[in-house]
Amino acid sequence: MPSPRYDGIWDALASVRDPELDEPITELGFVREAEVRDGRASVRLRLPTYFCAPNFAYLMVADAHDAVRAVAGVVAADVRLEDHFASDEINAGVAEGAGFAGSFPGEAHGGLEELRLTFRRKAYLASLDRLGTRLTAEGGQPVRLGLGDVPESPELAGLLRRRAELGLDCSPRSPLLLDEYGEPIRAEQATLRLRFARAVRVSIEGNAGFCRGLLHTRYPESAADER
Prior knowledge:
By secondary structure, this protein is mainly alpha-helical. The chain contains 8 helices and 3 strands.
């Protein structure tokens, strides 16, 4: 079987997002190396600091491993985090499929799905603000719209993707303004709820800029690796 193209590996890695920053690890410069030889994928990841939270780091390494392993033609994946205080535990745990708790026995309890869900809800709120801002700038009133009334745009696509991840209503008849739990936002709540969504979006984008700066300081060559 021919080896999968490098682009296939990169495309797979581009589907992996930093759970807190809600951006692909490829665009953040977190992928230092990715290659495939004879069906065996090798990926090396790096993070902005030596002490980045191990639960976030574990999620990215595990997601990258699963994404690369799913590429047609890949028979094995070696995904490793470098220059991190817990890289040995994380790399071994992901390779063995031990899960986060199994990677840190006696130190961590349970999985990371609740953490992932929390960040997905934040990412959804940020996408709601991006779309609401666009619609308001174009003269629309988000509080009165259903999804089927919203013109196609990158902001709408981003919102629908995040709704799907959360299992929220994506049908054309759904109100545009749903909160992060899938409940309609009433008109009298809209101003405060959209202000909160904006605060979440500003926080996420601010953290992303801060992390990029740290990564560029730690690895000056990383700026050229961002895509």
